[in-house]
Amino acid sequence: MSDSHTHRTIVNVCLVNSQGEILLFERTGTDTGRNFYALPGGRMEITDQNLHAAAIREMREEVGVELTPENLEFAGVCERPPLDARVTTRAMQFIFIARTWQGEPNNMEPLKHSNLAWFSPKNLPAALHEVDCRIIANNYQPRLYVD
Question: What residues does each domain of the chain span?
Answer without folding.
Answer: 7-137
